[in-house]
Write a structure and sequence with these properties.
This protein is α/β, with parallel strands linked by helices and 345 residues long. It has two domains: 4-136, Cytidine Deaminase, domain 2; 145-344, 3-Layer(aba) Sandwich (Dihydrofolate Reductase, subunit A). The chain is built from eleven helices and 15 strands. The strands form three sheets. The chain has an eight-stranded parallel beta sheet, sandwiched between helices. A five-stranded mixed beta sheet has the order 2-1-3-4-5, with helices on both faces. Helix 9 links the parallel strand 10 (237-240) and strand 11 (259-262). Bound molecules: zinc ion (ZN). Residues 50, 52, 74-75, 84 line the site of zinc ion.
């Protein structure tokens, strides 16, 4: 019999792997015998053992005859690790409760078929919504070949991201900054435009919570930013137009470990595709107006995360300077699969 608390436990375990397993999905697993948990595990890091294996190995007694709760369909293919479906069969478990099918169209359903073929009872779809929510970056990435894009901004009540002089630091508060650092630690990359680097000189690292730093990406077609900016460190990607910088300036970036990426057109689509190829399943876009506008214009935002401060500016830098401001040309997001999350400060 299915018990919701065990699947909830498996979902909570899955969340622990968020960020460090990408571009793999986060998965949790709980093994139950005689109504109590005898083993549990989660996928902890990219290339590491899967949740099912960790759960089996942690078990306090033989897992034969047990019920297995797993948040994603057990894998059936030989990847970096041997397939989990085979192991579950070998361990002679009795039933497997699966929250969500594998969203990868190339393998979806194969694990379930293998388990069923060997006589294991398989039940699919329990708490599926919650499981898909945890892995929404991965699901988008694997099904479209593009990274999941979160647009994050802190705005005044009247929708400005900075005052007329470009000051913006006071718009966010301590709680929202911590929130942002947590999201950074779970996304594969953080992306900003040149204006944000110039006005805020941000590090874009994770400091206020525990967690790993994301890749950093700076869009600066003219190549005008100084290599001394805080954001330029080992692993940062700087995107410019071809030959925007002198050889001498390029070598100053390269000496700092910055990766230079030259892109001929200003379109985001080929750029995002190449980031996906580099294994980035999610990107947090943090500013500013020009970059936000391009992402919205080209229709790449999957999730808006907007912090609204109790503050009226009257004039300032807008969140978007596109579209041109008529109802007929407005960008309508309703009906699309876009999440809009407004948080009051
Ligand atoms: Zn597996």
């Amino acid at each position: 019999m299915f018990r919701i608390e065990f699947m909830q436990r498996a979902l909570n375990l899955a969340k622990r792997g968020l960020g460090s397993v990408s571009p793999n999905p986060a998965v949790g697993c709980v093994i139950v015998k005689n109504g109590r948990i005898i083993g549990e595990g989660y996928h902890g890091y990219f290339g590491g053992p899967h949740a099912e294996i960790n759960a089996i190995e942690s078990a306090s007694e033989p897992v034969s005859g047990s019920d297995v709760y797993v948040t994603l369909e057990p894998c059936s293919h030989h990847g970096k690790t041997p397939p989990c479906a085979e192991r579950l069969i070998r361990e002679k478990v009795k039933q497997v409760f699966i929250a969500a099918k594998d969203p990868n169209p190339l393998v979806s359903g194969n694990g379930i078929r293998q388990l069923k073929a060997s006589g294991i009872e398989v039940h699919v779809g329990y708490m599926e919504k919650e499981a898909r929510e945890i892995n929404r970056f991965f699901i988008h990435y694997i099904s479209t070949g593009m990274p999941y894009i979160i647009l994050k901004a802190a705005v005044s009540l009247d929708g400005f991201i900075a005052d007329t002089r470009g000051n913006s630091k006071w718009i966010s508060n301590e709680a929202s900054r911590e929130d942002v650092h947590r999201i950074r630690s779970r996304t594969d990359a953080v992306l900003v435009g040149a204006g944000t680097v110039r006005s805020d000189n941000p590090k874009l690292t994770v400091r206020l919570v525990e967690g790993r730093n994301p890749r950093r990406i700076v869009l600066n077609r003219s190549g005008s930013l100084p290599p001394e900016s805080e954001v330029f460190a080992a692993g940062t990607i700087l995107v410019t137009a071809p030959d925007a910088m002198s050889r001498e300036k390029k070598s100053r970036f390269i000496r700092k470990g910055v990766e230079l990426l030259e892109q001929s057109g200003p379109e985001l689509s080929p750029l995002l595709k190449s980031f996906a190829t580099m294994g980035m399943a999610s990107i947090l876009v943090e500013g500013g107006t020009g970059v936000f506008s391009s992402f919205v214009k080209e229709g790449f935002v999957n999730e808006f995360l907007i912090y609204v401060a109790p503050l009226v500016l009257g004039r300032g830098k807008p969140l978007f300077d596109f579209p041109p401001g008529t109802m007929s040309e407005a960008i309508r997001l309703s009906g699309r699969d876009t999440r809009i999350c407004l948080r009051g400060l």
